[in-house]
Amino acid sequence: MKRNTPLSLGLLLAFVFVLAGSNIHAQIVWLTAHAISADTDVSNSGSTLDALKLWTGGIAVTVNGVTFNPMTSITGGWGDVTGNIVIGDPPLASTNYAHGNSVSGGGAAYNTLLSTMSYVNGANTITFNNLIAGHLYQVQIWVSQTTTPSNGINLDGVTPLSLTGTVTSASNGSFATGTFTATGSSFVENTRNGAAYAGGTPDLNGGSFYNTAIFNAIQIRDITAVPEPSSVALVCIGGIAFAAWRTRKAIRG
After folding, report:
1. What average pLDDT does range 35-42 have in this prediction?
2. How far is the first Cα of the chain from the last one, in angstroms, to the nearest whole number?
């Protein structure tokens, strides 16, 4: 006897297949950049997937409960042992420097995190790995440095963002927060040529100041909402009811 798949189930399966193949179209929604001000700049929502201190020396530092690991050379570029964040080639150049003024309201660890940075002289990518399709992720990037004119990075996404971070007596640099929903196990954040943005802000493809771009730290967090126990129970009851209905239909048919 021929059984027809319910229309709703067919549509659901079609949607899942389309979603699974659309990873290349996923983009980060960036919020307006904020001035660096205190340890609470560092989000601790959800759970940490990875956090990098973009320097190849020193030790890990913990800010607002989030541990940033120093990066090292790994397969595909630069990251830590987890490989959850990979800064692509060309190789980054790293340096340790003091930016002249401490973060007002920031602790010693936050100042340590922001006093080291990496820079690059060519095109690059930031790849996030070991994601779970359908989960919501949060990304944060920091730029804090003393060069003039200001360097930074141009970030691709639904809302492209030029992030700069000149440190002055009145500023500690800036950081950006964005979110995206994973449609596969990996996600690539592309950077753009400075000419694509008003003002030609220097970026990972080079700029007007030594053709370099810099950033100090990056983290990615899984902030997927956990269903309430009552919601999980309703889903289970619904699944049991649907299975019972299919069984009765098969017997009668």
Report:
1. 94
2. 8
